[in-house]
Amino acid sequence: MNPVLRTIRACVRSVRHASTLPSEAVIFTEDDRMVVCWHPEKTFPYECSLPLPEEKPDFSVLRIGDKEVAEMFRRKKAYQVVEELAKVTYTTKHKWYPRKRDIKAKDTEPDRPYL
User: What is the pLDDT of residues 62-112, one digit of tens each?
Assistant: First the structure.
């Protein structure tokens, strides 16, 4: 006979006599080749339970990376802006300072207005 079928039949026989069995049961098959254990879930009284603690999240919707929104929009000095841009773009600070010749070229008017 199939050992699985034998185990199922043994379980059915033990369930019929459930009043004599304790809350947990250990059953052996007829040829003692397999052990079947039954562990019902134990009930826990509702009165003894506590609600789960409410956890406040570590993050906020009003954050940009590790910085708060208010910090992002406050006025910064020119060197602070250059430092931030250099960190974000992984470049040196020199990329963000304009060259003197470019500044001077913007302020000068052409000597021939028709060009």
Answer: 666 666 777 777 888 988 989 988 988 999 988 888 787 777 766 667 777
pTM across the whole model: 0.32
What does the alpha-carbon distance between residue 87 and residue 96 come to, in Å, rounded to a whole number? 11
Distance CA 106, CA 103 (A): 5
What residues contact 98, with CB distance under 8 A and at least 6 apart?
A: none
Q: Where are the domains of the chain?
A: 1-41, 66-95
Q: How many Cβ atoms are within 10 Å of 10's Cβ, its own excluded?
A: 16
3-state helix, strand, coil in the chain (%, to 5): 40, 10, 50
